[in-house]
Design goal:
Strand content: 25-35%
CATH architecture: 4-Layer Sandwich
CATH class: Alpha Beta
Largest sheet: 7 strands, mixed
Shape: globular
CATH superfamily: Ribonuclease Z/Hydroxyacylglutathione hydrolase-like
Number of domains: 1
Distance between the termini: 5 Å
Radius of gyration: 17 Å
Number of strands: 14
Order of helices and strands: EEEHEHHEHEEEEEHEHHHEHEE
Length: 260
Amino acid sequence: MMRFCSLGSGSTGNATLIESRDGTRTTRVLIDCGFTLKEFGLRLARAGVEPGGLDAVFVTHEHGDHVGCALSVARRYGVPLWMSRGTWRAIGAREPFDGLLNFARDGEPIEVGGLQLRPYTVPHDATEPLQLSCSDGARRLGVLTDAGSITPHMIDALQACDALLLECNHDRGMLAGSSYPASLKRRVGGSLGHLANESAAVVLGACRHSGLRHVVAAHLSLQNNRPELAAVALADVLGSTPQDIVVADARLGFGWLDLH
């Protein structure tokens, strides 16, 4: 069995927790850890997990709302840490991590207990950012946030997923009319920024199939989007209702979703 939840999804901090259970073995992988150590502990406890119960932390890129306390978690609890070499250089850390640090590359699978992680590159204003698809051998979750544009490689990486977590960062009209300075509007809406609702809908349309069970709208801007707008954009692609779309709360994330 495989399941996943979010501890938070947005500019205030991001973390997605994935769990697989195979007989007596449980594997837990955390994607990003964009909080203070204290806040992370509180959010993880809310999901019913202890920090020592993590098998790996994967950092997608160096921005603070994603890397957060990931290095501290790895060091304090002895949890293996994964990221690209570019992300490691951008973070600027120098600790040896006593063999806990591992480097990920586009397309090279990573085996962590009962889970296989497959990183893929995305266009974002970071140094060698990676997103992931994750599988327990029977089910597959595709995770896509922090991408400014759509690439064929990205679409290929998200095919045949049983669940998709897709960035719906902003509504283009709301971003254009927001109080953001022009430079920030260009960054967010640019090819290395974040996906708009309609862009996420394009990704979903390219990856839609009959076995898709869960669709999650994630990484919504508090100022430049509304949950109902993101839900409608994705539901329209599926020919379903907005209530069928899970929308991650920026501060609270969402509860466990099962894939079995």
